[in-house]
Every structure is written in structure tokens, then in C-alpha cells.
Design goal:
The complex is a heterodimer of chains A (148) and B (90). Chain A is mainly β and 148 residues long. Chain A contains three helices and twelve strands. A six-stranded mixed barrel of chain A has the order 4-5-10-6-9-8. A three-stranded antiparallel β-sheet of chain A has the order 1-12-11, with no helix packed on it. The longest helix of chain A is centred in the N-terminal third of the chain and has 7 residues. Chain A starts with a strand and ends with a strand. By secondary structure, chain B is of the alpha+beta class. Chain B is built from three helices and four strands. Chain B has a three-stranded antiparallel β-sheet with strand order 2-1-3, sandwiched between helices. Classes of the chains: A mainly beta (148), B alpha+beta (90).
């Protein structure tokens, strides 16, 4: 069974870092996109992205500018409540591929300004995504594994 | 960089059609993921994964609405987005 390491390595000690894991959270390298066969345009098929595995989020999110760059289809509009009140957000469809696990899935992603807000991640994978994976979080060692 | 635009107007027809058929959908397709193009219901699926594959194959980049019948259309911003520790970099 393929296993993905989703912790953070301290580049100085070359060891898993509990501190970096606590700051950034479990993170998977993924590709996102919307591949249309035989489509002739300048739209990139997929882009690599860092995805936060967010057990505290019910839904998944994507950086709005990445979604626009990939011309992901808008499939709905969601009202999302935050500290500044409720706002409408585009909801995009995208195919997420965790290459290391050979795992592909289409998902709904609410468009939010992750990068502009200073986030490390361009994608946030919520519990709708987690229902198909197993994650083991070892906070003491700063080590996270994901499998399907 | 492309300018972000909320395209609720683009899906206005589909969303209006969904509201018009909501009662019928909740009776016959509750919990299913439906695909609407214009004011027409295309089909209902057990998962978003299958609905999205269908929509991509048949309609490319859209526009189309994919929505789970009976699911809330509002949600709370995840805490990881709303509250980021801006001085947390080691």
C-alpha cells in the first residue's frame, strides 16, 4: 500500500519537525486541474500545489487565482460566513491527484484568496475529501502519513 | 493576474431552475448530486466525483451547476483560512 509522508522536514537537521507541523499543518503535494481531451488553448492542464489536509474544515477550498488560471468550471456559488459577515464565493470543480498515492478524485472547491492572505497552501482539503483516505498524525514526532 | 469575479450571474439560470424544481428534487433525488445546464436537469448521481466526470465529458468547462440536493448552500469559513497566525514563521 503506498504511503504519503505529509509532515514537514527541518532542513537544518533533516528530521521531521513537530514545530513546523504545528505551524503549517499536514501537507500533501498534489496536482489540480480540469483536463479536457484535445482542447487547443493556452490553459494549463494541471498545476502542482501544496494542499493542507484540514480536518477542521467540512468543505475544500482553492486559491481563487489558481482556479482562474486553470479555468476551472464554476459549478455553484456558496455563501460563506466569516469574521466580516457572509460573502458569496465561486465554487469550482477540479480533479485532485495525489501522485504519490496514485489517488485521483473530483472535488468541489470554494474559491478563496489563500495566497494573497499569506497562506502556505493553494489548496485546502476538507472532510469531504478525507472520507476516502486514512491519516495518522504523530504530533510528538512531527510525522504524518496518508494512505488510501 | 486574472481578476477574481464572482460569477453568480453566469449560473443565475441554473440556480433559479434549481430553486424552481427544489421540491421535486428533494422528493425524488434527495442526497444526490444533480447536474443542471440552463433550466434543464441533466441527471442525478450518487457522488460529486461521478457527477463531475459526467459534466466534464459532456459539457467541458460549462457552464453547469452541480449541487447536492438537500445540502446547505451556506457554510462557515474554515478556521485555517479565517485565522492564520501571521507571525508564526520560525
Amino acid at each position: 500500500m503506498p504511503i504519503l509522508e505529509a509532515g514537514w522536514v527541518d532542513t537544518k537537521s533533516n528530521r521531521w519537525s513537530p514545530q513546523l507541523l504545528q505551524i503549517h499543518g499536514p501537507t500533501a503535494d498534489v496536482t489540480v486541474g480540469w483536463i479536457i481531451e484535445n482542447e487547443e488553448d493556452d490553459v494549463p492542464d494541471v498545476e502542482p500545489a501544496k494542499a493542507l489536509i484540514d480536518t477542521g474544515a467540512s468543505e475544500s477550498c482553492i486559491d481563487e487565482n489558481l482556479a482562474i488560471k486553470l479555468q476551472l468550471p464554476v459549478v455553484d456559488v456558496n455563501s460563506m460566513a466569516g469574521v466580516g459577515g457572509a460573502q458569496d464565493h465561486n465554487v469550482y470543480a477540479a480533479e485532485v491527484n495525489i501522485t504519490a498515492l496514485g489517488f485521483k478524485q473530483f472535488g468541489r472547491f470554494t474559491g478563496v484568496h489563500l495566497v494573497a492572505g499569506g497562506q502556505t497552501h493553494q489548496v485546502l482539503l476538507g472532510r469531504t475529501f478525507l472520507q476516502d483516505i486514512i491519516m495518522v498524525y504523530d504530533g510528538r514526532r512531527g510525522h504524518v502519513t496518508i494512505s488510501v | 493576474m486574472a481578476k477574481s469575479t464572482v460569477v453568480r450571474d453566469v449560473l443565475a439560470t441554473e440556480r433559479k431552475a434549481f430553486e424552481a424544481m427544489r421540491e421535486k428534487l428533494e422528493k425524488h433525488h434527495n442526497g444526490k448530486f444533480v447536474v443542471l445546464v440552463g433550466d434543464e436537469l441533466q441527471d442525478a448521481f450518487d457522488s460529486f466525483n461521478v457527477a463531475a466526470q459526467y459534466a466534464r465529458t459532456k459539457f467541458g468547462r460549462g457552464p453547469y451547476l452541480i449541487r447536492q440536493v438537500g445540502a446547505p448552500t451556506s457554510m462557515s469559513l474554515p478556521a485555517s483560512v479565517a485565522y492564520r497566525a501571521i507571525n508564526a514563521n520560525p
